[in-house]
Amino acid sequence: MRVIITGGTGLIGRALAANLAADGHEVILLSRTPERATHLPSGVRAERWDGRTAAGWGSLADGADAIVNLAGESIAAGRWTAERKGRIRDSRVNAGQAVVQAVQAATHKPPVLIQASAVGYYGPHGNDFLAQVCLAWEASTASVETMGVRRAIIRTGLPLSNRGGIFPLFALPFRFFIGGPLGNGRQWLPWIHIADEIAAIRFLMERPEAHGPFNLSAPNPLTNAEFGRLLARLMGRPAFMPAPAFALRLVFGEMSTLLLNGQREIPRRLLSLGFRFRFPEAEA
Known about the structure:
Layout: E1 2-6, H1 11-22, E2 26-31, E3 44-48, E4 66-69, H2 82-105, E5 112-118, H3 129-139, E6 150-156, E7 158-161, E8 164-165, H4 167-175, E9 188-189, E10 191-193, H5 194-206, E11 212-216, E12 222-223, H6 224-235, H7 245-252, H8 257-260, H9 268-272
Parallel strand pairs: 1-2, 1-4, 2-3, 4-5, 5-6, 6-11, 7-10
Antiparallel strand pairs: 7-8, 9-12
Helix pairs in contact: 1-5, 2-3, 4-6
């Protein structure tokens, strides 16, 4: 297969690229700064794009076997000023529109598009900032379905990896014996092991009956407090130092919703298609 991955230099993109390349597939990562995409596995190459159009890379979509659209500015890289919120949303919508342009121009269209989204789609009220971003993100590539391209949407929870993402941040306070629940600790934490995230993406890519939205999170979510207690026990650390909600709001502003809100996301559609998790339980 020839697979194009937008946002391919992030945690999920790099892991997916390495997994595909290990099986002998050709992988093209789209990056604004391809010269920084170093130490790529054999079979993986980086190509430049502007994140907004198909200029310079669109021809690669012609005859490709799949596109995985993961592109979008990090939501956890700083306080959510009005300017940053605009960039977070626009980066996702613009990337989706660029993918649509490439598919439109392709004579031999890729049969499948994996469209990234997130658990934030559900939101605490369904109308908060992250929920609106996810709605726009998913909608940005909807028109490829009218071109005969199958589209599967991955509403990803919190991928756990030692190579980046949220897990090292969760573990850090416990390493210094100051770990504990965030806020009241009752918010759900829809986690997924990075190996299962990658396996699920490939499963959806390769199953012709897989279309529409899928929750990518382990079938046994935990509350923040439960996850913290488990992490503390396995690390041989205490879990008694709570981080008060007011303090998190003071430090992070609106971005504190990432820590204080949660969704109990269950992967029912994924399981119904026959996907089997390698790590269905957090302790493993």
